[in-house]
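User: two proteins, same treatment. go.

Assistant:
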Amino acid sequence: MGALIKLEVFYLNNNQLSGCFPASLSAVCGSLASLGNNPGLPGGGNFGAFCLNGTGSCSASNTPPQPTANASLTATVGKGFSYTVNAFIDAETPSSLTYTASINPANGLNFDATTRVISGTPTTSGLSNVIIIATDPGGLSAFTSFSITYPLIILSIGSSRQDYGVYPNPISDQHFSVQLDEPKTALVRLYSLDGRLMPIQKIGQDVGSLQLKTERKLPTGVYILVVEERARTRQYRLVLE
C-alpha cells in the first residue's frame, strides 16, 4: 500500500470485505477513504477509527479471543427464558467477533448470534450443555461452556376429587389411575427424578378418571407424573413400592 501514498480517493463501501486492516493502509489515511458497510471488517469497516488509533488493524501478534465465564443457569419448564451470554474479550478486534453456539439438547431454546441471547420456552425437565464459540476476523477462536438445568416441580398428591388425586399411591404393581376433567384428551407423562421419560400406557377411562400402567416393571422409588389438560400443567409425586 505504500505505493498508494498519493491516492486521493479510496472508496470500497458496501462490499463483502472481511478480515482486518493491514498496517500499510495507514498510507491512505489522509485521503478521502471509506470502507463502510462491510460487516466482515472491524467496526463494519470504520476506517476513521483505524486511522485515529489503529482500531481493527491486523497485528502480527494477533491473539485469540478470551472467554468470559457464564454461571450455570436454571430455567422453568413451560415458561419463557432469556439470557444474554457474556461477551468475549479480544485485544485487537473486540467489536468484530463472530459468535456461534451449541445447545444440546436444544429443549425449545435458540441462540441469536447478533445479540448473544439464548431464549425460548423449555419443553421438558433435564439439562442442556451449552458451548459458546467466538471467532475473530483473523480466524482465531476460543470457547466457553455452561449448563442450563430444567428442574421438575414436585407438587403434593391431591387427597380428594377437588385436588385431582392419583391413586393408589404408593402403588405396588404397574397400575394406577389419575383423576381428570378430560381423560380422553389429557396428555400424561411419567418421569424419573433425574428427568428420564418412563413409558406408560393408557388402558382405560371413565368419567373423570384415566387408568394407566407402566410398560415395564420399574425400580422402586419416587417418580413424577406430569398431566396436561385445558392448557394447564400439573405434576404429582408418585411412589412405586
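Protein 2:
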Amino acid sequence: MTTLRPVDSGRDKLIGISGTGNRLLDALPSEDRRRIVERATLTEMPLGTVAFERGEDIPYVHFPTRGVLSLITATRDGSTIEVSTLGNEGTTGVPVFLGSRQEVNVRCISQVEGQAVRIGADDFQDQCELSHSLRILMGRYTVALLTQVGQAVACSRLHSTSERCARWLLMTHDRAGTDKFFLTQEFLAYMLGVRRASVTNSLGPLRKAGMLSYSRGHVEILDRAALKETACECYDVMRSAFEQVLEQQL
C-alpha cells in the first residue's frame, strides 16, 4: 500500500477556537482549547495517509475533524487487522499522552479522506502537563479506546465477516460525515484482516437488500437502520464507550 504523509493546510484555515470540528478538542474549556489551536495546523489526510508507523517515533498528534483513521496491527507474515477506528470524536494522541511514543506496535492510517488538527507531540505533552482538564479527558478517552480494542478482538473471533463488515460500515458512516465515501474492497479486506473474496461475499447481500450501493469503490449508505440490524452488537458497545467520554463533565 502506498505511504502518504499529511499535508498542512495552514493555521489560518482552522475552524476557530470556539469550534474546531473535533468533538474531543471542543469538549475542553476554551482556554485549554485555545492553547492547542494556537500551536496546531489543519492537515489534509488523503486516503492512505500514514499518521504514524509501528515502531517509529510519533512526531505529531492528530485530532480528526472529518474522515476516518484506523489503528492496524500486523503479523510477521504480513497479515493485518484493524484494532481501532477513530474520527472526529477522538485523537491519535494516546501513546504520546502515556509517554510511549516510540513503543507503539500499530500503524495509524487514513481509511477515509479528511482533515485533522495536528499538533507536535512535544507541544501536546506540554499541554497535558499544563491542563488538568486535558489530562482528565485523555484518561477517559484512553479507557474508551481500550474498550474498543478489546471489543474488536472479540468481534474478529466471534462474529461473521458479514456482521463485522456491517459494523465497520456503520462506524465509518458515523465518522465520514456523509452517506457517500470512497472505499475499495481491497482496503476493506485489509481493515478486517480477511481475503477480498470474503468482502465481496459480504457486500453482495447488503447491496441486494438495498442497504447500500457500491460501484468501483464508491459506497453510499441507503438504509442505515437495516445495516444496523445486520451488524453485531459490538457497534453499540464501541459507540457508547466514546459517547460517554464526551458526555461527562470535566
